[in-house]
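Support reply, case 0932

Customer input (verbatim):
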Amino acid sequence: MSSNESAYRSSAAEPVRLEEPVRFDEHGIDPIPASARDSTPWQQFWIWCGANIAPINWVLGALGVTLGLSLVETLVVITLGNLVGCAVFGLFNVIGHRTGVNQMVLGRGPFGRRGALVPGLVQGLLTMGWVGVNTWVVLDLVIEILAQAGVHGGTGLRYLVAGLIMAAQLLLALYGFYAIRTFEKYTVPVTVLVMVVMTGLAIGQADLHWTTATATTAGDKFTAVTQLLTAIGIGWGISWLPYSADYSRFVRTEASDRSVFWSTALGMYVPTVWLAALGACLASAGDGGDPSSLVTGAFGVMAVPVLLLIMHGPVATNILNLYSCSLAALSVGIRTARWKVTLVAGTVASLVLVVFVHADSFAQAFDHWMASILVWISPWAAIVLVDFFVLRRGRIDVATLYRDGGANVRALVSLALGLVAAWAWQFGTVPALQGPIARTLGHTDFSWLSGALVAGGLHYVLARRAHRKAPGAAPAETVS
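Our regenerated output:
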């Protein structure tokens, strides 16, 4: 048993010293004691709002127009789709608030301690990859800004900028949750104000085409809707589920589930829909889908201060990636301090970034592959959701998550079949990950739905059947 987990047994935490504005986060994967849970729902809103004010949302919002939908159709899909995805995200944050436990350890509930190793490893690897991808995106934006200002430094300048960005991200993640919370609290409101100005300027200058659409048949429109739902509709909120409880576990115990749900769901919903809608509007005016092009085309010389502040989004995303990466590593059994794991993750991400700096085409291909492989989240999330809210009726004995145990074979089988179902109805940019159902049904993409229904439904059926055969046993009992 690790030192992080043994801390749960004693759970004698020192009182929080509120006079310290930012303190070092010494917590690992042990449940956060009530005395140390001082975050508010409002602070959770800023964390998730900051992480989603990012250029990628412009691009994904513009995707609807690119796929052939009209501006009105794109806005409807983005607005309604995110209602579902962000609501599920809010529910996962409620689980973290009720238990005080990080997300990958919570996965031990349905999968068992050993069974949860697989999702934990996947989450740890993906988060490191995302840090490299997101920093590469930020780097391109900074170089674009400096070029407009007349600063050209070649590869040396790229390395300097990349080093500064990575150092800032790594420092915040090393310091932990309290530094992340403070960073978002003071930077996001300013960024939101800039977004208000930017939106006003963009809409005022752009010649919007509300009903023009290149997809003319019902089949083409339906295909475009499904792909947009996966990219920036329902799928966007789902993509953040493995991170959720890592932060809501710090919310005060006296805060209501409702306040946690709404603060986190809206923190995800507002910036995602806002930026995606802005990207769609600019794309409908013929300004393309590249982040730099979208901004510079709309604002001209004003793009420099706008881009400098909008860079905050990817940085805010990466500090969550680095922090959650360290928790995922500890959850699979690595026994060391959280900050040491974060340092290793930052180093690996830096090496990935070096490769990207020298190979933009490879970086783009890797970015597409990363987006496609996130299909694993929907079946995993469905199992966790069904297990906690349906089978366990919203409660779990936290101590059982930290006991030695085997793997729940039923949950792992459900996950495997859910992954197959998700792949079968996925149509991404990577040919190998385009499933037969998606290709047969006109390139539609319902991967998030097929994966969730198969995995969640199968887990429920198998767990109930096992419970009936063994009266008195827990529905999610682990087996070796």
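We compared this against your earlier run and they match. Two observations from our side: The chain has one domain: 44-466. The domain at 44-466 is CATH 1.10.4160.10 (Hydantoin permease). Please reopen the case if you see a mismatch on your end.
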